[in-house]
Write a structure and sequence with these properties.
A: about 100 residues, Helix Hairpins, elongated, B: mainly alpha, Four Helix Bundle (Hemerythrin (Met), subunit A), 2 domains
């Protein structure tokens, strides 16, 4: 079986991909997907810690509870975020971050 | 889990992740996210977190990504392919990722590694005895039964933890979902002139 560091490395690589996507891409929907990738990377490290930190010989289920709550909050966040994107598109007819410069000084 | 499956699912996950950034078409990106999450669910199941693996498939690839595809089709974005790529964000992204990975590998090389060990029937029976003796689980219940048979009742244990230790956060989560639903309805309503 793979060791804890293998799982943490996989999680860090996924997080790095998400981070790169958030910085590189200009399309808000893609940026939002990359945020989901980063949340999932955090979930992977939580589950890995839960599995490798055994309590009474069983996985530490407190970690998996946190994953459960993260998944639920992420689903709510996606619903609200996509509603905001649709409202933004209705108001501005664009979802490119280059063209959304109202807050620029 | 044999290491071969670990590397297989990690590769699927990372290729899916890179494809999300690389594709210019949002629909291809969304389908790459699905690929990435399927690999991730495989990793979860390899970590004996069966419930989280199934939730990953059902909630993320089933519900969330379909919602994304739905919104992409609703917005009908076509102009992305004609845009010139800007070099500054790409360089900034690569520099940020390089800095993050250097930091991470620095931390990882300083911390102790833990080798993976599978569950044995003796170990699970022993943990069942501990849990019954401090009356966390009932002796006649399904959790004890499965543990003494040498299986890991992952879903039962999560349900048990969720409805005993984490009951109040669960209720608060219900309120959060209600607030999100009301918020989405308010946001999507056409503004009155």
């Amino acid at each position: 079986m793979a060791s804890l560091n293998d799982y943490l490395l996989a999680s860090a690589l996924l997080f790095a991909i998400g981070l790169a996507g958030v910085v590189m891409r200009r399309n808000i929907i893609i940026v939002f997907m990359c945020l989901e990738l980063m949340l999932s990377a955090a979930n992977l490290s939580l589950v890995a810690f839960s599995r490798f930190n055994t309590v009474n010989g069983l996985p530490d289920y407190n970690g998996q509870m946190l994953v459960f709550f993260v998944v639920t909050v992420a689903a709510a966040e996606v619903a609200v975020g996509l509603a905001i994107i649709v409202a933004l598109y209705r108001a501005r007819q664009t979802i490119h971050t280059d063209e959304l410069t109202s807050l620029k000084g | 889990m044999p290491s071969f499956l670990f590397w297989l699912f990690t590769t699927i996950m990372l290729i899916g992740g890179v494809a999300v950034i690389a594709f210019r078409n949002p629909v291809s990106s969304a389908l790459s996210v699905v690929t990435c999450f399927v690999g991730l669910a495989g990793l979860f199941i390899g970590l004996s977190a069966f419930f989280v693996g199934v939730i990953q498939i059902l909630v993320y690839t089933g519900a969330v990504m379909v919602l994304f595809l739905f919104i992409i089709m609703l917005l009908d974005l076509k102009d992305e392919e004609h845009r010139a790529k800007k070099m500054v964000p790409i360089a900034a992204g690569l520099a940020l990722v390089a800095a993050f990975m250097v930091q991470f590998i620095g931390v990882l090389s300083q911390t102790a590694n833990k080798p993976g060990t599978g569950f044995t029937k003796e170990g699970l029976t022993a943990s069942a005895k501990i849990l019954v003796s401090n009356s966390t689980i009932p002796e006649a219940g399904k959790i004890n039964q499965a543990l003494t048979q040498g299986q890991l009742p992952d879903v039962h244990l999560i349900g048990h933890t969720l409805f005993t230790q984490y009951n109040l956060p669960l209720q608060i989560l219900g309120v959060l979902l209600l607030v999100a639903t009301v918020g989405v309805v308010t946001l999507s309503k056409r503004q009155a002139e």
